[in-house]
Amino acid sequence: MTTTATATKQFMNSQQLLEDWQGHRNLTRRVIEAFPEKELFEFSVGGMRPFAKLAVELISIAGPALKGIVDRNMEAYNEEGFAPSTKEDILKKWDEETEVINHYFNQITEERFQETFNLFGQYEFPVYQNILYFVDNEVHHRGQGYVYLRALGIEPPFFWERF
């Protein structure tokens, strides 16, 4: 009997994951831009938080969490450090955090993606699953933003135009 070895192809490498995530971030930034300033901070549907608060949550998670992963620091999650008062404040911080994400993401070795990490001292999953959580959470909140924009009579950006 003859045995044939088959090379396993990788589905996605870490740079493709980062590119995908940044595509989501680009789209979420465009959702923030689409809001009139007053409604960004005040409008909500069904008791959900205004989109500005959702954006602050996303800003408060991604960069600090990646820094925690790189530094092996399980410090608790904290939204209190950033209290924007304008859409411009949010967009500026969004762009700054994009650079933080790029900086720390590129310090995570391929091997570390498989390591278990206790994110914020609460969620113990492999690093790659923590990163997928950041993306999933952003997509979830962006969906809320789409509902808000439509309720305001504003056409949201096409969800497939991420870059």
From TrEMBL:
Keywords: Metal-binding. A divalent metal cation binds at H141. The keyword Iron does not apply. The keyword Transferase does not apply. Pfam families: DinB (PF05163). Signal peptide: none annotated. It comes from the Bacteria. GO terms for molecular function: metal ion binding. Belongs to the DinB family. This is Damage-inducible protein DinB. It comes from Chryseobacterium angstadtii.
